[in-house]
Description:
Blueprint: H1 3-19, E1 23-24, E2 30-32, H2 33-40, E3 50-53, E4 57-61, H3 66-76, E5 81-90, E6 102-111, H4 116-131, E7 137-142, H5 143-151, H6 157-165, H7 170-180, H8 188-200, H9 202-208, H10 218-233, H11 239-250, E8 252-254, H12 255-265, H13 272-288, E9 297-299, E10 313-319, E11 322-329, H14 331-337, E12 345-350, H15 352-362
Amino acid sequence: xxxxxxxxxxxxxxxxxxxxxxxxxxxxxxxxxxxxxxxxxxxxxxxxxxxxxxxxxxxxxxxxxxxxxxxxxxxxxxxxxxxxxxxxxxxxxxxxxxxxxxxxxxxxxxxxxxxxxxxxxxxxxxxxxxxxxxxxxxxxxxxxxxxxxxxxxxxxxxxxxxxxxxxxxxxxxxxxxxxxxxxxxxxxxxxxxxxxxxxxxxxxxxxxxxxxxxxxxxxxxxxxxxxxxxxxxxxxxxxxxxxxxxxxxxxxxxxxxxxxxxxxxxxxxxxxxxxxxxxxxxxxxxxxxxxxxxxxxxxxxxxxxxxxxxxxxxxxxxxxxxxxxxxxxxxxxxxxxxxxxxxxxxxxxxxxxxxxxxxxxxx
Length: 363
């Protein structure tokens, strides 16, 4: 479709969200880089366009709408609230990927602390209704299941926090889990350093290395050494608990079947049953909205990708392997941006250009 046709389709999608009770909002194209860097770390520089402003400092072209909409709502939004937006976003793409660097997003965000399961069901059912005519492949998951499983592990709070920080980076998460469970031995150089520190003290080891290079201070280096010592002295995560994580990450199939699989392992990790209860409550709410949960695909490891902020229910709609729409729950983001306040929130976006390609192929 032509750019004009894509914009027309974006308007149709936006009107559908307005018809569902959403208030149209806008966001500045240039966003403060500091906020996004605090959320995602330096990794986001690889995907966002960054520039310097002589007055406002480092800025980024808007990589999505969710962050500015959350900031707007947490500043003065009423509750509950439903918002929609329609505008361009900018993201760098891998060479040869053939993906647009600038494209439209049309989205819907729901802020409501009354019943998170009902909110999840409302948002998913709305997207499902809008996209159902296009015969897209659905995918759902729940990032909160893995977070709850990590919390139930028999290990230190610091190890749990490090694992939680790597949930959206599966390779790093797997490496940490293998280290903490004893499947991977510590690096010989690290073992030698820890033994040296135990023998003569961290300060003496640091002084013997010569002048400091890089940006870390001596205090930061010593704190890192102390954490490595603590790791070396901490017992491995029990193999039986790692096995539960492995079984959890392997769960895939229809949502109702996945629930039964999770029920079989829920009591093997402390507190994990509560996360499975939340999944069941959500599925019941979806069924009440007319979603066929017996034929709703579910993967426990779906949504575990980098630079995302979802911490609960996640979903996507695909044409083959091409994403047309995605969304999920992001309660923690509202707490980070809320300056002491937080509210349960869930939302999603549709790419009109990608949907237009599907429509063009069907015509």
